[in-house]
């Protein structure tokens, strides 16, 4: 009996050892299996992306809360110091928000479905004649329309509330009928930029527009309401990207390939179609400073850099918070190097070239002044040189998406 028990114990031990060895072999095989390694990296990339998205939108919201405080203070006590602080805070709020623009174009919380907030946040170009007085002969609004010049039309709009302004934005399906968002606030703070591009000056709205001028009080009421609305709209996006929130959770739950297709759709479309096309080449083609993104404050040179940076953050898997801390992890380049190292090398070089070129635009400053010296067919000057490389980057991002997921991405908008 003892011999039989001993034999059983020996066989059991051998079986356990065999299972252990088999398990170790499986783990080692999994580690060495490139397909499994790629899948792990894909998941890491998607998770890192959601962390970066939330961090950048949260930074934008924090800065907009600071803007709301500055605007409320200015309207309550309008003087040159509070006026300048409100302008400076608007510029500061553009820094993190500009780095969120690559999170668009794939029906996410920012621009997916009816009532999308993006049109209320960053819509441009706007026809400022709808909001307030403009220089004679400027603005495209039909003055026979009794809805014109909201601030001065007390009978039609006795109360300037968030709800009223939001309802008016985009009326008659006219995209230039923008009454809310960053650029409505920008216009109210700076006024029209009627100087020649060679003068290198932003809008010069007088402080008296908020103190002694006609409808000064209503102008302040409009500014307060539109700033509060912007905070609300950006907060609605932040809330959907919070860890554990409905959209954030569903994004992480979808297949890695589907999530990556969305991520690279946003990055590719911003690079080639939107930034290189609508925001840069169109302005050069029309030779019109009204076509620049932030035409009242002359901050477009900075917008261009920040929008390009939003793409670069995805490519390199890293975002620098406004407090100086870093959110980082697996990058697009990490995955692409495993799938197609040649494409990863090419995209690395192109991304570096893009950032170098938009840095030149930012360093020179005054985008309206720069565009007057450029033409669409000359790629040797700063703007069109950057346009050419941004287009190339958009195509390479689309190709990266196909190589990684097998899905086709159209980088145009």
From TrEMBL:
UniProt-annotated location(s): Cell envelope
Predominant localisation class: other
Cross-referenced InterPro entries: Imelysin-like (IPR018976), Imelysin_sf (IPR038352)
Superkingdom field: Bacteria
PROSITE patterns the UniProt entry points to: PROKAR_LIPOPROTEIN
Name recorded for this polypeptide: Imelysin-like domain-containing protein
GO cellular component annotations of the record: cell envelope
Keyword GTP-binding belongs to the record: no
Cleavable signal peptide: 1-22
Domain Imelysin-like: from-to ranges: 55-394
Keyword annotations of the record: Signal
